Predict the structure.
Amino acid sequence: MILCSTDNMQIDWPGTQTWHLASTSDCVMTPYHLNFSSGEIYWLQGNNGVGKSTWMRVFSGLLPRLGSISWSSDLGSQMQRSHYLLSLTRDAGVTVDLAVQQEYFLRCGHVISHSHLAEWLHAFNLTHVRFMDCVDLSSGQKRRLQLMSLLYSKAPLWLLDEPYTHLDDDGRSLLEGLISSHVARGGVVVMTGHESCSLRCHAIVLSRR
Amino acid sequence: MFSFLCYRFQSMLASPFLWLSGVVFWMVESFLLLLLLQPTHALSLTQRMGLLWGLLVFSQLLLVSQFMTRQRVIAIVEMQAMSQSPRLWLYELLAFWMMYAVLFVSLSPIVCLLYGLEMSYLFILFFLWGVASPVCFLQLYLARLVCLFLKNGFFIVVLVVIPWMIPNVLLVLRCLHMFASGLGLFSQLSLLLGVSMLQLGVLSAVIDRVLVCCHAHMRLTV
């Protein structure tokens, strides 16, 4: 089942070059038209500076967009269809605990229970840094903290911008486990990155012209 | 959104560098200026209250500059988009303002001592600050936003934002003068309240647009 499709999606900003998409798999119908089917992973590739992260932001509605995105009618009333990982910027003094509570509240609209919080921190191996300042975390721990929102995401489409960056082997397997279970439930994952990915995915190559 | 306000309040309490420097700046500057303006009893009541007002506004300017960084604005815009709450920035600013309101009130005894003001005068001044400062915060927020994200933002601010600050300053000055002269304050205060409410509505709508536009400009313009 096609979950969503984009039709000639480009940035709506003067002076920006248009994107050109290509794929070896049949998910790409025309150079500008993309179909994202349930239970599939799409890997957006391209050289540095081509605009993979920008493409993600345009898709998620963070930046002005030309063209259209159409969603499966089953998702009619769903408010948040895509889950985009937020930039992790925290003030000094904000603990891991508070950061998770805030992000959970913003994404879900209600307060997190302490048992869930403890459980998720344990799942991401962050229990020992629970009351530590976010700015003192290592890059890998920051990435884990960022990825934690995937645990409670109800969105069918995940947009992951370089999710493997800074992760160790444990972190990678944890992430791949989350992605696999999401895909098994019929979700779609679109991710970018330069590292090799052990999951079966459709490659989409992004270029400018 | 009360929970979000509580979280932001907690975050700010946990980051004293965000707000403490403004208060320190305010106190130090007050102390220095009052030393330079000796003897203080030669200053009229309006002058002393005006001086206090001016320093409050300058410390706000410093605070907003410190509070508004590119990273924080990016985070706010992203959170707004993901949370479907288009006015998250306003709640953030409200938490910041609340923090300052509490701080300024708690510092009242020291201010009375420094400026030689009676508590009743200070009460009026803080009341005026309560009415006029939200607009001032919004104007400074807008100015900072434009300066941060647009090329030649400073000139745009000088030409477009600063002139909007003048009517408020004049109205506050008029209120202070009428109070110091023992004249009725009610009509001027009503006018200030009305103008402030109008400006709050307009400025928040303007910032809603400018925030998204500046974010896109920053992301897409090399």
Notes: The longest helix of chain A spans residues 169-184. The radius of gyration of chain A is 17 Å.
